[in-house]
Amino acid sequence: MITVQEFCKAEEVDEDSVYGVFVSYIEIYNNYIYDLLEEVPFDPIKPKWNSCSTPMRNTDFVPPQSKLLREDKNHNMYVAGCTEIEVKSTEEAFEVFWRGQKKRRIANTHLNRESSRSHSVFNIKLVQAPLDADGDNVLQEKEQITISQLSLVDLAGSERTNRTRAEGNRLREAGNINQSLMTLRTCMDVLRENQMYGTNKMVPYRDSKLTHLFKNYFDGEGKVRMIVCVNPKAEDYEESLQVMRFAEVTQEVEVARPIDKAICGLTPGRRYRNQARGPVGDEPLVTDMVLQSFPPLPSCEILDINDEHTLPKLIEALEKRHHLRQMMIDEFNKQANTFKALLQGFDSAVLSKENYIQGKLNEKEKVISGQKLEIERLEKKNKTLEYKIEILEKTTTIYEEDKRNLQQELETQNQKLQRQFSDKRRLEARLQGMVTETTMKWEKECERRVAAKQLEMQNKLWVKDEKLKQLKAIVTEPKTEKPERPSRERDREKVTQRSVSPSPVPFLFQPDQNIPPIRLRHRRSRSAGDRWVDHKPASNVQTETVMQPHVPHAITVSVANEKALAKCEKYMLTHQELASDGEIETKLIKGDVYKTRGGGQSVQFTDIETLKQESPSGSRKRRSSTVVPAQADGTESEWTDVETRCSVAVEMRAGSQLGPGYQHHAQPKRKKP
Fold this sequence. Notes:
- This protein is about 40% helix and about 15% strand.
- The chain has eleven helices and 14 strands.
- Belongs to the TRAFAC class myosin-kinesin ATPase superfamily. Kinesin family.
C-alpha cells in the first residue's frame, strides 16, 4: 500500500460542497469489454454450459459477460452495467484495485512470463455536489453536480509473432492487441492532420473499443497524457523504434481543455456561517439589553425616620427611567411602523416573485416532462439501434470471413492460372524453337540439294556444249591443210573470239521467310564513296597472292571499337581459316553500320566474299616433247599443262547456301601438230 503524504493532499477545496470518490476496473480483451469487479453469482437451479455443450460443475468457473458501450445525453461514453465502488481512503481504493488485478488475463509467452493479454482501465471518479442555501443539505439539482474522472490505462504491448512464438488463442490475442493499437495510431494521425492542415476528416473511433471509449478525451472533453515504456535491449530495437515514433506522433496532437462551469445562485461560505451562528438559546435577550441601558437605581434602604434624601433620589431616578422608557417606546413604535411598512412591501414583492417563479416552474415541469418522454423514446430507439448494430456487426463479420475465404480462393486460382500460363508460354516457346530449327534445317538441306543438283546439271550441260563446239570445229576445218601451231597470243585471241557457252547461273532458292534477295552480280566499285572500317585481326596471316582485297578511304583496326564505327558507314571483317584441302581460305564479311536509339552503333551483315588459294602442282602434267597422236574422233587430247587452265574465283552471296562458287575454265589449247 502507498501512504498518502501531506504534500499530496489537495488544497483550495470548495468547502460549500460535499464530495464522493468511486472506482471501477475494466479490461478490453479481444475487442470486448469485461468488468473485473463484477461478482458472478452462481445459480444452482439454472445450470451453466461450457464449450463442449455439457453442464458445468459447481466448482467450474463461469466466464463473465461482456459489457456494452453507451452514450449519455451529453454525448459522453460510458460502460453500461459497470460496477462502481465508493471508497473513503487510499487503502480501500488499492484493495479494490488488487481485487480486480487478480482477474485480469495474463499468459506466458516466449518473451514475457506474465504478458498482459488485454488493455486494462482503472477509473477514479470524483463527484462534487453543492450544499443548499442553508449549508446543511445537498442541493437536489442534477445540473449542479460536477463529475471528474481519471482513467489509468495500461496498454498491452505490440507483439511480433515470430518472436513471441504465439499459437492458437495467444495468436488471436496478439492480433487483436496489434489491431487496437493500430487503430489508436490511425486516430492520432487523423487528428494531427485535421489540426495541421485544417481538414475535417472523420476520426475512426468506432473501429476499436479502446478508441471508442476515450472518444470524448480526444474531442476536447478531457486531458490526455502518455507514458512510453522502452526496453534498452538491442534485440528489441525495432519494437522500441516503433514505440518512439508513435510517441512522437502523439506529441503533435493538441486537445482543447474544457471550460469549468461555476455554481451560480449560492452564497459562498454558507457552511461556516451556519456553524458560527451557534444555538438560539445562547443569544442575549433584548429586554436585558434595554434594562442595562437604563440608569442605575440608588440605594432604597431607609435607616432613619428623618431621612429626607433617599426617597427624593429614588423618585428622581424612577422619573428618569420612566421618561427614558417613554422615549424608547415612541422610538420603538416609529421603527415598528417603518419595519411593518417594509415587511408589507417585501411581502408583496415576495408574493409577486413567488407567482412568477411558480409560473416558471410550471413551464419547466412541462418542458422536463416532455424531455423525459423524449428521453424514453430515444432510449428505446437507442436500444433498437444497438440491437440492429449488433446484428449488422455479426453479419459484417460473417461477410468479411466469406470475403477473406473468397479472396484466398481467388488468389489460389490466380496463382494456378499464372503457373498454367507460364507453362503454356514455355511450351509454346520450346515448340516454336523446335519448329524454327527444323524449318531452317530442312531449308538448308533443300537449298544444298537443289544447288548440288543444279551445279551437276550445269556442269554436264557445259561439258556437252564444249564437246559439241570442239566437234563442230573439227568438222568445219579442212583436212588437207596441215595444222600449224599458233602462238600463245594467237591461240588466246582465238579463244576470246570463239563463242563460249554461258557460265552456269546459280539457282536462287528463296523460301517464304524474310531472307533478303541475293544479288546476282557484285560490283566492288559500288562502295567507292562510303567510308569503311577494315577490321583485320592481328592473328591473320599475310598471303602472297596477286589479288589482295583493297578498300579506299578505310580505317584499319585490329579490334572493333565504337569510335571507329561512329565515323564510317560500312564494315568489313577479314577472317581466315584452313580449308579441307589444307590451303588458307580468306573470307571478307561485309555489313552496314546503323545508329541505335541509345546512341551506339550496330552492324547488319549483308555480304560475304570468299578468297581461296589453290595449288595446281598435284594435277599439272608436263607436256611431252613428242607429238601426241590425234584421237580417233578427230578431237585433240585433254589439256596438257597449267597454262591451258584459267584461275579459279570463288564468291559467296548473302543469303545463299550454295557453298563454293563454280569453276570457270578457258578453252583448251589445241595440240601442236
